[in-house]
Write a structure and sequence with these properties.
Largest sheet: 5 strands, antiparallel
Structural class: alpha+beta
Radius of gyration: 26 Å
Strand content: 15-25%
Mean pLDDT: 84
Strand order of the largest sheet: 6-5-4-8-7
Low-confidence stretches: 148-158
Number of strands: 11
Helix content: 40-55%
Shape: elongated
């Protein structure tokens, strides 16, 4: 967030100065070019949390390129529309305070020009967020399934029916994490984040595929994006909305959607009075 704030400040100062130099010969008021740039930057900052949410929910992937292109095209149109509306509103407000009126060119040619600028900004942020998450995954450590050792035959005695441990590669280190150590699992795009003592280790696998490999006596799905290790649950709280909440041993609270209440064993569904 600090890097983003620094980027916006430097970009705003540079663009404001360039705009003022270009317009100074026309006798334009000193504050107007700066207002244009500040209003544009503030508008993008207001929209940015939604863009971050979108990139987290729909990360870039190789599969389904047509659907992704359509989704990002529509999202870029919305990004541009919100940017323009917020920007024009801010400028109009300040112009009114100065006793002037701000007129924006809403003709198709100018809107196309604005979209051409905004779509580049939109793609810049999408790629930036993807790159950031890629670096963070490498820094935190990324989990993967263990490969079968070449000298270990796959027999019914040696083969585990469920996934019991994963290999984590973090920078130049490798170590094992037992699934019994995982408190809960949260979906994050193409990854399932394995939470161990508050730290997330991304595991590149779909939620459905992972559920098929987990012991159902230990791990159950409690809402659309989370799986809980039942061995870490210390308290069950029933809510008035027919939903529930689980309290884990480290104090973490996990929401249970009413459609998944049956996944919680009856022995744990004890309401404290």
């Amino acid at each position: 967030m600090l890097l983003l704030a620094l980027f916006f400040c430097l970009n705003m100062l540079a663009n404001g100065y360039v705009a003022y130099v270009e317009k100074s010969a026309t006798g334009i008021a000193f504050w107007k070019p700066w207002l244009w740039e500040i209003s544009s930057a503030l508008s993008v900052l207001i929209i940015l949390p939604g863009l971050i949410w979108l990139s987290e929910q729909y990360p870039l992937r190789i599969q389904g390129l047509r659907l992704q292109m359509l989704r990002h095209f529509l999202a870029s149109l919305l990004f541009c529309a919100l940017h323009l509306v917020l920007m024009v509103a801010m400028r109009s407000f300040v112009y009114q305070l100065a006793g002037e009126s701000y007129l924006f060119d809403w003709h198709a040619s100018n809107l196309l020009y604005e979209y051409a600028k905004d779509v580049r900004l939109y793609l810049f942020f999408i790629i930036l967020f993807e790159t950031y998450r890629f670096v963070i995954r490498r820094w935190r450590g990324e989990a993967s399934k263990l490969a079968q050792a070449p000298d270990l035959p796959e027999t019914s005695d040696s083969a585990e029916p469920y996934l019991t441990q994963v290999l984590v590669k973090m920078l130049n280190q490798e170590f094992l994490i037992k699934l019994s150590q995982v408190d809960y699992i949260k979906t994050a795009g193409n990854y399932q984040d394995l939470y161990v003592k508050g730290r997330a280790y991304p595991f590149r696998i779909t939620q459905a595929a992972l559920l098929n490999q987990l012991n159902p006596a230990d791990f159950v799905k409690v809402n659309r994006g989370q799986i809980v290790n039942l061995n870490t649950v210390i308290r069950f709280i029933k809510l008035n909305s027919n939903d529930a909440r689980l309290i884990l041993h480290d104090g973490t609270e996990i929401s249970v959607h009413k459609n998944y209440l049956e996944n919680i064993p009856a022995t744990l569904r004890v309401v404290e009075v």
